[in-house]
Amino acid sequence: MDLAERLNDPALFKTQSYVGGAWIGGDTSFAVDNPANRQKLAEVADVGEAGAKAAVAAASDGFKVWRKTSPFERSRILLKWLDLIQDNTDDLATLITAEMGKPWREAKGEIAYGAAFIEWSAHEAARVHGETLPVPAPGARGWTIRQPVGVVSCITPWNFPAAMITRKAAPALAAGCSLVIKPAPETPLTALTLAELADRAGFPRGVFNLICGDASKLGPIMTGSPEVRMIGFTGSTEVGKLLMRQAADGIKRVALELGGNAPFIVMDDADLDAAAAGVVQAKFRSGGQTCVSPNRIIVQDDVADDFVERLQARISEVKAGDGFAPDSDIGPLIHDEAVERVDALVKQAVSGGARVVVGGQPLADELGGSFYAPTLIEGSGFDSEIARSEIFGPVASVYRAGDEKHILDLANDTPYGLAAYLYTRDIGRVHRMSEGLDYGMIGVNAPMVGSASTPFGGMKESGIGREGGKWGVEEFTELKYVLLSGVNS
Ligand code: NAP
After folding, report:
1. Torsion from C-alpha of 115, 105, 311, 268, nearest 10 degrees
2. b/e map of 447-461 (b: 16 or more CB within 10 Å)?
3. What is the pLDDT of residues 159-197, one digit of tens each?
4. pLDDT digits over 271-321, tens only?
5. Of 131, 134, 213, 454, which has the fewest CB atoms closer than 10 Å, so is most exposed?
């Protein structure tokens, strides 16, 4: 598939926003670049405050129709959207690689992962139901019903340009909510194509709205408008806190998928090869730019030398390059500031006594874009900046620790609590440690934790709420209780 040809195909490729079933422009626009070569891909319209207000009004109208649409019809339209996404997987993956940088085969994997949430939610739409309840008054009846929350504003990041949208939009639509979605300015092209496919799928006008533009103008309308009843956000903890504060005024519901600082724990009884392979898989996916990326690789002292050696061999094989090149294992970081931030963390670690085992430098001169070398360091302190903050880049940092209790204390010593990984063959340790880790998701001998049927989300400052499975759909419903008095009296 030729990218230039695709970007000139007006049937699929859009640069305007989708509001109330129509494409709308704005007074200004912003550029979207390819981080692998810094070439401009497109100029996307910024719809400004007027566009955001129009989207909220459209979603408010759309909700009136969608909430009354039968769950089976909702399911049918969702499955149509799924089909269209699957039919256009290659084009969507091409857009992801072009605007975000991840390798094309990984981008295809993201489409499959994101599509699975649509499939699951479509089937779950028909299973949203209440219960009958025992009540104290004789002859009375009590029951619960689950109803859609209302208009939902969804704000998404750039690291999964498609999946972070489908993971919210699909369950919300299944529950009967209408949407105003704002993608990240780095990756609007994939999002706009998802909107084009939603249009073709036949959602009633106003049910699905997607707007692009300056967050400082769009954000307050998306969070502050009284018609909006819920804010679904994936992004940094800092912005999540801000949105939660904005939601407080209207007591709006929030679902927040925020940053992480995942420990990857390797115990002395672990299969060290499997653990080293697991680190590479979890760490270098999306170039290390995932919320569940192992941030601190904590290895028991007595196997640490052996483990570092095995990890070194594997990381030396990881190849950075343009995501369209078939032999690239990781693409560029999202922009030059990300490279500078990662490089500063590594330099700081080294000046604090850490040793660079592999990599440890930007590759902009060699590769011509925002690239950073796949890197392994060891010997940072647990109080170092690289241990405390989210690296969000292709840097694996190994720490040594003593017994189980020491490791659990270190692993939990962070405000974050999204994903943790544990490698051990001792079933007692599996139970003790998975119960002791303050994280929403634990991968035991498993480097990939998320799927459409399971709850994805974090504790502490990593967020509130769960995406995926029945929990993902429930998140977008209100539980209502009805009491009918004296039926038999
Ligand atoms: P970010 O800076 O928080 O931005 C995320 C989104 O929020 C973007 O669309 C951004 O738009 C928007 N935004 C920023 N300020 C806003 C405001 N005041 N009002 C409304 N919208 C606003 O995060 P990022 O750098 O794109 O993504 C990386 C972060 O996401 C990492 O911390 C990562 O761990 C987290 N993440 C979490 C999960 C999860 O499931 N827990 C998944 C993926 C990523 P602008 O850029 O235009 O400001």
Report:
1. 30
2. bebbebeebbbbebb
3. 999 999 999 999 999 999 999 999 999 999 999 999 999
4. 999 999 999 999 999 999 999 999 999 999 999 999 999 999 999 999 999
5. 134
Q: Whose CA is nearest to atom 8 of ligand 1?
A: 184
134/176 same-domain check? yes
The amino acid present at 284, given as its one-letter code, is: F
Q: 154 catalytic, yes or no?
A: no
Q: Which 8-state DSSP code applies to residue 226? A: T
Of 154, 291, 390, 461, which is the active-site residue?
291
CATH number of the structural domain spanning residue 229:
3.40.605.10
DSSP bridge partners of 434: none
Instruction: Out of 211, 228, 234, 334, give the residue to mutate to test ligand 1, the one with the largest number of ligand atoms within 8 Å of its CB.
Output: 234
- Predicted TM-score (pTM) of the model is 0.97
**Does residue 486 lie within any of the structural domains?**
no
Task: Provide the residue range defining the domain that includes 309.
Answer: 262-451
| Tokens found for residue 57 | 């009004």
Same-domain pairing of 243 and 323: no
Question: Which one-letter amino acid corresponds to residue 356?
Answer: V
Dihedral in degrees, nearest 10, Cα atoms 382, 383, 387, 391: -170
Is the CB of 393 inside a 6 Å radius of any atom of ligand 1?
Answer: no
In a domain, 457, yes or no: no
| C-beta of 246 in contact with ligand 1 (< 6 A) | no
Give the residue from 26, 27, 34 showing the smallest Cα distance to 3. Answer: 34
Gap between the Cα atoms of 37 and 32, Å rounded: 12
Helix (H, G, I), strand (E, B) or coil at 33: strand
212 is catalytic: no
Which is nearest to 181 in space by CA: 59, 15, 16, 29?
59
φ and ψ of 228, to 5 deg: -80, 125
Among residues 186, 257, 378, 404, the one annotated as catalytic is: 257
In a shared domain, residues 469 and 426: no
* 390 ligand 1 Cβ < 6 A: yes
Q: CA 347 to CA 480: how far, in whole Å?
A: 55
